[in-house]
Each structure stands twice: as structure tokens, then as C-alpha cells.
Inverse folding.
């Protein structure tokens, strides 16, 4: 299954929907994980931390073009 993690757009939101450790576990179960570039920056998780566990770094369109999209907050109208 392809799992996409876009950057959070809600003002003041500093969390990201998935940590590199969780992404590593999902990869071990056979899933493909894509994280939007910069999605973890506000949570002090750089793209390199995701790349190190085999996550694909992508743009917003790539993160949303997934079987499942994980977010911290509900999607904004612009994300629907």
C-alpha cells in the first residue's frame, strides 16, 4: 500500500503525521511511504531522517497521490 504524508498547512501546527521510526515499521511491513519535502521541519525531523529509513521524499502532489493519506489535522478545503 502507498501511504502519503503531506505537510500540515494549519497555522501553528508543528507536528507531522509520521515519525521516521514509524515509517521504518511500515516499510518493514511492505508498504511504500512518501513524505512531502519539508513536512517534518517544524517537528525537527529533516528530510534526511526519512530518507535514511527508505521513505520517498516527494512534492505535495506525490504525497496526496497515495492509497492512504495521513495527516495530524483534518484536511483543509484546499487540500480536498
Amino acid at each position: 500500500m502507498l501511504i502519503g504524508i503531506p505537510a500540515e498547512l494549519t497555522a501553528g501546527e508543528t507536528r507531522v503525521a509520521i515519525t521516521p521510526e514509524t515509517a521504518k515499521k511500515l516499510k518493514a511491513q511492505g508498504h511504500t511511504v512518501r513524505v512531502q519535502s519539508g513536512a517534518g521541519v517544524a517537528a525537527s525531523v529533516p528530510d534526511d531522517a526519512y530518507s535514511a529509513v527508505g521513505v520517498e521524499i516527494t512534492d505535495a502532489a506525490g504525497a496526496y497521490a497515495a492509497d492512504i493519506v495521513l495527516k495530524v489535522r483534518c484536511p483543509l478545503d484546499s487540500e480536498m
Q: What stands out?
A: The CA atoms of residues 29 and 66 lie 17 Å apart. The chain has a mean pLDDT of 96. The chain is about 25% helix and 20% strand.
